[in-house]
Amino acid sequence: MILDRRTILTGGAIGALATLAGCSGRAEATDSGQFPIRYTEAQWRERLTPAEFRVLRGHGTERPFSSPLDDEHRRGTFTCAGCNNRLFSSATKFDSGTGWPSFYRPLTGAIGTSVDTSLGMTRTEVHCADCGGHLGHVFRDGPRPTGLRYCMNGVAMNFIPARS
Predict the structure, then answer these.
(1) What is the pTM of this model?
(2) What is the total count of domains within the chain?
(3) Which of 80, 83, 128, 151 is catalytic?
(4) Maximum Cα–Cα distance for the chain, whole Å?
(5) Is the model's pLDDT at 124 over the cut of 80?
(6) Which residue segment(s) compose the domain that 83 sits in?
(7) In a domain, 9, yes or no
(8) Is residue 122 in some structural domain?
(9) pLDDT tens digits, residue range 3-40?
(10) Residue 83 is a catalytic residue
(11) CA distances in angstroms from 140 to 83, 114, 123, listed in the order given
């Protein structure tokens, strides 16, 4: 095959469109089937709201400052909206100023990670260890003691207040 200017430009345009359409270079954790909780796409659509499905199963992102969980300050536990897996303790939540609920440490065994190369950058994607649902990303600009910022989509989680 001969690579000319037209072939290169066409390939670049197709790659850009695929990224915009959500066909990225990220590891598709939700499609691997290597999780204890598995449903078909139709079953997930029945179980989840359209917004939850877009984020958890489609690797979407909610608008910043749109989740009530960003302002949740009670004691309790944040769980996966897809399968109710316990993800984060409220004791590890902090205000990152980003508009998404942020935590410096997940509960033991609650999450998994994969490489996300969408949007022309490399990030660490965070998914639920039980159902593989996309939760958000983790960054190395968080507070002590871990220095990590688990930047989560609020629509991907539920909150269970601690009993008084």
Answers:
(1) 0.80
(2) 1
(3) 151
(4) 70
(5) yes
(6) 25-161
(7) no
(8) yes
(9) 444 444 444 443 333 333 333 333 344 455 589 999 99
(10) no
(11) 27, 15, 10
